[in-house]
Please model this.
Amino acid sequence: MSKKPRRKHSPAFKAKVALAALAGDKTLAQLTQEFEVHQNQIVDWKKQLSERATEVCGKPAESESPPVDLQALHAKIGQLTLENDFLGRRAHQGGMAERKAMIDHQSQLPIGRQLLGMSRGSVYYLPKPVSARNLEVMRRLDELHLKHPFMGARQLRNQLNRQGFPIGRKRVKTLMTKMGIEAVYCKPNTSKKTPGHEVHPYLLRGMTIHRANQVWALDTTYIPLAKGFAYLTAVVDWATRKVLAAKVAITLEACHAVEVLEQAFKHYGRPDIVNTDQGSQFTAKALVDAVKSQGCQLSMDGRGAWRDNVSVERLWRSVKYERVYLHAYDSVGQARASILDYFEWYNHERPHSSLKRKTPHQAYNDWLPTLKLVA
Model:
């Protein structure tokens, strides 16, 4: 049996896909269906574009090239055109998606003559989007995990089966991994860190947090959409519960956490401590450097210890039950606008009993440390 040839994509096609991912207006599932490439490829191309953008902008101007002999060049082009079958050879250099775009279904030329080395099935095949059933199961998993964070794949499977969802444990585990959630329980070898990533100790145990900008919490959660899903990252002032910065993105990467944290630094100064969990996006060197460059200490929850970051966990429960679960967002842009609008209301109009019926914005302004005046 012959080995299936590896698909190749032109740099222009990769850049187009990466730019669409950077825009963040569509989920990975929608981009996969539109461009007919795997989600991992989209994430890789997006990362490559982000890393090399500075190289392109900082590239020195090239010296002027020597004059070209147009007559000799035209003669050479004519010779090569005659010697090679341009259409056949040139078309095969493009990727599968580009060759499929060249096919004209209205042409009198049969489709079989336009295949350009592709199988007939690939012309009519459409990538399978995330099914409505999977989206509904993921939504129920998210709700169950919020209520019962100790439940693992087996317990969640049992709960889903009782609610009328015939699903197996392995499928539940796969969806939990995609959503970035896991059960809270004691595990062996919990101190083992991600290769190349440094895990910092938890600094808040026994600490009295009584003022604004003393401790910030940084975390990411899963947001269900009508067609796919997204991730919400936010920075919260621990004492006053004020949301200092937030972002909705289609990927789970360190760059989004760094961006949100830098927004909070820009508008609210810097705290004494920034607390996160041990997710790979938070143990990445880029985020660690962003925290330490501001002179802040970095604290990390124990593995699977959601209570160590309970301040932001309460925020996730509020935003999901008071806004996200009440709407079936059709796009990332719609979810982004709705959630940011909720945070504006949450900060300025939603009083908390734990804050003596003050809003987070009022409590934050009242609890800021006073600066001593220099005589």
Summary: The radius of gyration is 26 Å.
